[in-house]
Amino acid sequence: MRKPKLRELGEAIRALVEGPYTTKFPFEPIEPPENFRGKPEFQPDQCVGCGGCAEVCPAGALSVIDRPQEQPPMRKVELRLDQCIFCGQCELNCLVDKGIVLTQEFDLATWDRASARESIEKELVLCEQCGAVISTKDHLQYIAREIGAKSYSNATLMLVREEALGLVEFASPEGREIPQRADMIKLLCPKCRRAVVARELFGPCD
């Protein structure tokens, strides 16, 4: 029988003296490393509700639910932790960088899957012509701030900035099929703005 190697013998002695190397979790808390990818969390003051995180989530753990029929119309971005694979794509591709961040929290075991859902809600902006969803108010305000004075070249962004200052109020969708010249200065979705501009430049097509 071969004699044990000195290194193995030394490790055995250290284990007897110092105890096992494994951690004592969950009886004692442990500190994850700095770059640990733990539970994603929405940051309400930073998130603009653009839904970009849901577009890049490979596991489908993030979803966008629009409720335009409510007063005011709302968008809910929902995170299902029971489907999340903690890849970090939501944080990496966040429009505002800190709208959703991965924390160091990892102990997420639960008996109730309903408790593994978290969400954030943002007010929607609807097209004043057809009622289609344009985006969230916070998202449009963020774009307007980022591009600065250039936002005044777009009627929708200009109105969102002025609404934030209390200078205008958004109107309810009118549902008219034929746009008029006055519709140029309204909150319009891309389809309706194209129709308004085309009618203004080329005249009625009917």
Biggest sheet strand order reads 2-3-5-6
Helical stretch tally: 6
The low-confidence parts are none
What does the overall shape look like?
A: elongated
CATH architecture of the largest domain: 2-Layer Sandwich
Number of domains: 2
Overall number of strands: 6
Q: How far is the first residue's CA from the last residue's CA?
A: 99 Å
CATH class categorisation of the largest domain: Alpha Beta
Largest sheet: 4 strands, antiparallel
SS strand fraction: 15-25%
Rounded radius of gyration (Å): 27 Å
What do the pLDDT scores average to? 86
Structural class: alpha+beta
Compressed to H and E, one letter per element, the order equals HEHEEHEEEHHH
CATH overall fold name of the largest domain: Alpha-Beta Plaits
Helix content: 25-40%
Question: Mind sketching the topology for me?
Answer:
Blueprint: H1 6-18, E1 40-42, H2 52-56, E2 62-67, E3 74-80, H3 89-92, E4 100-102, E5 117-126, E6 133-136, H4 137-147, H5 155-164, H6 190-202
Antiparallel strand pairs: 1-4, 2-3, 3-5, 5-6
Helix pairs in contact: 4-5
Architecture overview:
The protein is an alpha+beta fold and 206 residues long. The chain folds into 2 domains: 34-123, Alpha-Beta Plaits, CATH 3.30.70; 127-201, no CATH class. It is 27% helix and 16% strand. It is built from 6 helices and 6 strands. It has helices at 6-18, 52-56, 89-92, 137-147, 155-164, 190-202; strands at residues 40-42, 62-67, 74-80, 100-102, 117-126, 133-136. Strands 2-3-5-6 form a 4-stranded antiparallel sheet. The chain has a two-stranded antiparallel ribbon with strand order 1-4. Strand 2 (62-67) and strand 3 (74-80) form a beta hairpin. Helix 4 crosses helix 5 (155-164).
